[in-house]
Each structure stands twice: as structure tokens, then as C-alpha cells.
Amino acid sequence: MNSWTVSDKPAPTSPSPEEELAQPRTQTKLVIALEPLLAVLLIVVDLVKVVALGLPRLASEIYSIFVPHAKKDVRGQLVLITGGGNGLGRAIAHRLAARGARLVLVDIDLAAAERVCEELKEQHGVSAWAYRVDVSRYEDCRQLAEHIERDGCGPVDILVNNAGLILFGFINECSVERAATVVDVNVKSHIWMTKVFLDGMIERKRGHIVGVSSMSGMYAFPWGGIYSATKFAVCGLMASLSEQLRIQGHSKYVKTTCVNPYYVATRKDVVEFLQKPRFSPLTVDQAGREIVAGILRDDVVVTVPRLFGVFTRFMLLFPVSVQELVRDYLIREYELNNNLHT
Hints:
Helices cover 56% and strands 11% of the residues. The protein has helices at 17-66, 87-97, 110-124, 138-150, 176-204, 225-248, 268-274, 284-296, 308-317, 320-337; strands at 78-82, 102-107, 128-132, 158-161, 207-212, 254-261, 301-304.
């Protein structure tokens, strides 16, 4: 005989379709609500990493600013400077000549280069040669090396790729011809001159290649997209060259320096365009002095003013992941506020 048990508890019922849909939505909302908190926690973790990794480097940079650093002797060495007939190139030439270096000045304006050579001979008693070269053309750069050897200047010990053109204006407003010229001079000259003289430095196990970039090659500004692009290219080239020499085992005797100066008052149109910059433009002498000091210290990166380098190095240590987290968090907040989540 079967026995039946009567229970007071109601029999379980299956959830309705509406209830089944509501449960995942609730879970989704909970996850979305917790995401900002998780993002903040991850940001805090990354910031702690930044501080832990960055403080020793920042302390080292600050220490090197206030404590004298041993400087290499350039007496008798041959320094080749592109764009050496005017402005920053001329200032660098005078600073190095004062330390006994011999100079080769390359410029599209031969008269200007020759004039500076005479100044160097009279004021510093050093040998100096001037050459007219279109440094945007590889063949011209190659022939320059032949002329230097033919004229008995000697091997190039320090190459300063300083030649460059300035172009202010939005990309869509710049003429194609002018933009092409700026790219050719500002980028190709560094590549061709380095290509021509690098092998000799490696063979002699002595050399130094300097690339003059700009602060606009580290932080782009909107009214100079093409100019900034060329200066970013110089920074990339110098960083790549430095790493190439390291992995090839040449970095102990072939040095690299990438120079990033703030605005230098080299031309009237630059000063007029800037009008009221956040910081006063550098004089040519100020920039030349700090650039040469960085070269003599064998600094891989030189910022002018030098204090800018402290902040720059900190920003370069700032993890990309932190920036991505901040971006994703802001996007999520925007979507939530505008009911874009389903």
C-alpha cells in the first residue's frame, strides 16, 4: 500500500521567461558597477610601480645636474656639423672649437659656412673647412666624405646632424613642395650622413653621432604636424641607432646623443610666430652651451633646458597600461551616463 506524505511547502515552480532575462541583466549591471573600482585599483598598482621604478632614475638625473660629470677631451678631434653656417650650428661649432676641436662645417649656404670657419680660426686658432652640400641627397653626402679625405681633414670623430628646416602650419594648409623639402632635409639628412660616416667610426672604434631633434619631437604641437613628424623621426632614428650599436657590441666606443631643445630664437619668423610661449625661447648661446655639455658627457638624450629632462624621463616611465585604463574608464563612464549599455 502506498503512503503519501503531505507537505506544507509549496511545490517549486520554474522561473518565468521574464525572470530568467532579469538575472543576467542584474549580474551585468553589477559587473559594470564594479569595473570603475577595479580600474582605479589597477591604476593605483601601476602608479606604485612607476614611482618604484622612476624615483631612482629621477634621483640620478637630478644628482647629475648638480654634481659635475667627467667630460671627454675633444682636442684634435674632427667634428662635422651640418647646418654649421648659422644659428645653432654656428654656436655648437664655437663651443667645440674653444675646446680644441677641428671643424668641418657643411651648409647649403657656402658663404655663411666659410665666414664661420674664419671666425673659428681667428678666435680659437683651430683648423676649419667649409663645404656646400645638399644633405638631403645621398650622393652629395657620399661625395662629401671623399672631399674630406682628399683635403686631408682626417676621419670624422663627431658627427652633428644639425641641419633642419622649420614649417609652421596645419597639414592641410602647407604646400606640397615646402612639406617635401622639410621632410627631405629634416629626416633624410640624418639617415644619409649617418650611413656615410658610421662604418668608419666602427672600424676605428671611436666616434659619436649627434642628432638634433626638438621638444616637438617628444610632444607634438598641432600647428606643426609635418615639422613634429620629422623630429619624431629623428628621435626614433637615434633610439634605434643606439640600440643597434648596443646589440652589435659597438656602444662602448661609438656613442649617440639625441638633442631635444625647446624653442630656440634662431630666426625672426620663429620668434614672431611664437608670440607669447609658455616659456621664453632659448637664445642660441644657451642652447649651444647645454648641447655641447651633453655631448661631452656622452648623454644619450639631452633636453634643453636640462631640467625638462627630469619631467620627460618621468613621463616616459609612465606605463601605457595606466593611460589605457584611464581611457577605458572614461569611455565606460560616458557609455553608462548615456545609457549605451544594453
